[in-house]
């Protein structure tokens, strides 16, 4: 048991270091922007409503050099590397490291690098609940970073009000914030975040958040990252539980792993359907 805890701790530290390496390649800071007053009226908010989002970008040369330091990227050609840099989607293969622990460290490191708005998206309602509970248990490790978890039980007018309140609390805070969402709240145009002319997804997109996805499989993580593009993220990091060979921007994979936990019917290097 002690050996397992040590492996998990080591993995979490390595993942955090990898995230730090990536986000240290840019200059990021909070940037204010106004929210629609007519929407704020739904929450009895009057006057000018100021929100805060992420501003800044990665340095291309710095990011290219950093990505070449990851073992999984050593054999990547320049053409693929340029594609990965342009996509701004990175992959963490957590393996035995709990995803909530890995994401906690990643959040802290991203905030250290100037990121203030982070959306954590879960592939399933159960995953969303587990993340919310884990972050509550590990609150001391967040060092003052606020967490809002939207856990809908119903999808009526009351739920809509709570969703507005959650999003406005996330956006109007001038401190680092995490918003935990399940894909069931934004994956379709009829979902609760996507309704109306001034949708909540549109407001969140104005904050240019960093998006962390959490799923067991890489395929689910990629799909979730594609759906989460509605938030116009500065960058997306896919946290997947499985370990498999990938032709992708893999910034962490456990050392010494030889067993493939999942094998697709088509070899990854021959796939043409990547997002």
Task: Describe the overall structure.
It is a single chain. The protein is an alpha/beta fold and 275 residues long. Helix content is 38%, strand content 20%. It contains 9 helices and 9 strands. The protein has helices spanning 2-23, 37-40, 60-67, 78-87, 99-112, 125-137, 157-172, 200-206, 218-227, and strands at 26-35, 49-58, 89-93, 117-122, 146-149, 177-182, 210-215, 235-240, 250-252. The chain has a 7-stranded parallel sheet, with helices on both faces. Strands 1-2 form a two-stranded antiparallel sheet. The longest helix is centred in the first third of the chain and has 22 residues, at 2-23. The chain is globular and about 50 Å long.
Helix content: 25-40%
- Based on DSSP secondary structure assignment, what is the total number of beta strands? 9
Secondary structure class reads alpha/beta
| Unreliable residue stretches | 257-275
Tertiary shape: globular
Averaged pLDDT, please? 85
What value does the Rg take, in angstroms? 19 Å
Helix and strand pattern: HEHEHHEHEHEHEHEHEE
Continuous helix count: 9
CA(first)-CA(last) distance: 39 Å
Strand order within the widest beta sheet: 5-6-4-7-8-3-9
Estimate what percentage of residues fall within beta strands. 15-25%
User: Can you summarize the main beta sheet?
Assistant: 7 strands, parallel
In short:
This protein is an alpha/beta fold and 275 residues long.
Q: Topology of this structure?
A:
Elements: H1 2-23, E1 26-35, H2 37-40, E2 49-58, H3 60-67, H4 78-87, E3 89-93, H5 99-112, E4 117-122, H6 125-137, E5 146-149, H7 157-172, E6 177-182, H8 200-206, E7 210-215, H9 218-227, E8 235-240, E9 250-252
Parallel strand pairs: 3-8, 3-9, 4-6, 4-7, 5-6, 7-8
Antiparallel strand pairs: 1-2
Helix pairs in contact: 1-5, 5-6
